[in-house]
Prior knowledge:
The protein is an alpha/beta fold. It has 2 domains: 2-153, Rossmann fold (3-Layer(aba) Sandwich), CATH 3.40.50; 163-288, no CATH class. The chain contains 11 helices and 9 strands. The chain has a 5-stranded parallel beta sheet with strand order 2-3-1-4-5, with helices on both faces. β2 (27-30), α2 and β3 (52-56) form a beta-alpha-beta unit. The N and C termini lie far apart (61 Å).
Amino acid sequence: MKFVIVTGMSGAGKTTVLKFLEDINYFCADNLPPALLLKFAELFEQGSEIDKVALGIDIRGGKLFDDLFKGLSMLTENGYDYDILFLDASDESLIKRFKETRRSHPLSKTGSIANGIKIERDILNEVKKRANYIIDTSNILTRELKEKINSIFVLNESFESLMITVCSFGFKYGIPIDSDLAFDVRFLPNPFYIQELKECTGNDASVADYVMSFEESRIFLAKLIDMVEFLIPQYIKEGKNRLVISIGCTGGKHRSVTLANELYKALESKQHSVRLKHNDIEKDARHKK
């Protein structure tokens, strides 16, 4: 029997994931007391045709959540294999979601959402360490989340818990506040000063070809890819599950876009979980109006 424990931060998407699992023929139950894990597994083992079960367990169970590790140990002792899927998101994303839905955090007794999130992170820290899969939903669309669930539980593809975001930006608009690594490519020749390229962006082949025609661009890209490839397993080992790599030029329109696109393609080709953002690509056009 395929047994999946779905847990994680409140507001990170556990209910949505359970719906996705239900769509691929998992029997799903939400907010089950952890002490009942073994009995629940035995129930389905006895003559049931159901062979895929997903259980949502989180801090809504209050003190009952303390029984989780005991329940998991009993599953193991009785020969039941299970996977833990942990849903996470940045504090900023979680606070925004709670405010948008006008709901209070289950642990925010003082009314402070941020305080509730901090308490919950402390409670869930050990569960997260034991998770087989960690998905950070801070910056992914519902469609992308569904694709991840299908890749893991339908296609059985290898899964990398580190979600990488490669983004371009313009220094004139500021470095993205969520950047883990930021690189300055203003040392490269600027297409802005070439009339036929000025109004184009790094998404246009003419600009990309121009930027990458210089040896320093190619050397920088090769060294950047090499460094990021070295860092990825180190971050995963540390337990990091999201990495934002920001590449900036003056306006965030030409050089940074080109290099961000190239880095994204290189990481995607090596099967990393990666997404691409261009923060400031259209800002110059808007400001001129």
